[in-house]
Amino acid sequence: MGAQLRVYKRRIKSVTATKKITKAMEMIAASRIVKAQRQVAASTPYATELTRAVTAVATGSTTKHPLTTEVERPTRAAVLLITSDRGLAGGYSSNAIKAAERLTSRLSSERKDVVTYIVGRKGVAYYGFRERPVEDSWTGFTDNPTYADAKAVAAPLIEAITKDTAHGGVDEIHIVFTEFISMMTQTPIENRLLPLALTPSTAEESAEVLKRGGEVLPLFDFEPSAEDVLDALLPRYVESRIYNSLLQAAASKHAATRRAMKSATDNAGDLIKSLSRLANAARQAEITQEISEIVGGASALADATAGSEN
To answer: What share of the chain is helix, strand, coil (3-state, %, to 5)?
Structure first.
């Protein structure tokens, strides 16, 4: 019985140490979420306004440009998948990978060759284990991305969209990342970065117009030309969207880690309570057995003493 009690005590000690670790990781993740949220809030207006500016240039000119002109029959599409470098975040990376798989299947059904780019060790490991081709990958900065990291990721994508498909270029660029909605909700989504989707609503919001005598006059003059303006905006647009997506993904990862570590801490607490009850029961059984042995020994001694006197 004493051996069983020692086993319970060792398990309680081990689970208690694990609980301390998960609690510390939960607190670290919670502190990082605040910084990540601020970065997302700071970068989103710039990315949104830059998208509006690009849309305005596109709607205010007839220039054909990779940024705004859709290919009649696209044959190659690039997919940028953003995952995490680390685990212990529940289904964060796996959900993003599943979203990328669905997007890849859809693009393949449209007879498009998919070229994959990956951010994060989890995504790289997933594709590497399955021996799937990856055009390029980046790791080591998913917890705290910088604008320099976004520029490094954007560079090969910009080069690919500006090249002909016969020479390794692509007709479309898609991005899959986890959008941070709240502390409890993070949703994997996919967006098409290029060509920029121009709808009547976005055109109306982005391109300010002035009606004079029934004539619609754009309020934009392009110097030196609309094409040069688009050439200048193209890298900044892609970099800003990727940077915002990296920040959204980082905030989502920290939130997922916090939630997973809180669940692990709570489970460890429940397990400690269960093991403590079992240890107490084992201790009580051991004490009961010792009392029974003492009473039995005393009774036997009394009987032996009474027999010797007779």
So the answer is: 65, 15, 25
Predicted TM-score (pTM) of this structure: 0.80
Taking the C-alpha atoms of residue 121 and residue 55, their distance in angstroms, rounded to an integer, is 34
Count of CA atoms in the C-beta half-sphere (13 A) of 18: 18
| Exposed / middle / buried, residue 199 (Cβ in 10 Å: 0-12, 13-18, 19+) | exposed
pLDDT at 212 over 90: no
Least confident of 90-94, 130-134, 162-166, 213-217: 213-217
CA nearest to 11, candidates 247, 276, 235, 221: 276
Tokens of 236: 């900044």
Residue with tokens 């970068």: 43
Token readout for 250 is 């980082």
Residue 46 CA to residue 294 CA, distance in Å, equals 81
DSSP state, 214?
T
pLDDT in tens, 112-137: 999 999 999 999 999 999 999 999 99
pLDDT digit string, tens, across residues 226-250: 777 777 878 888 899 999 999 999 9
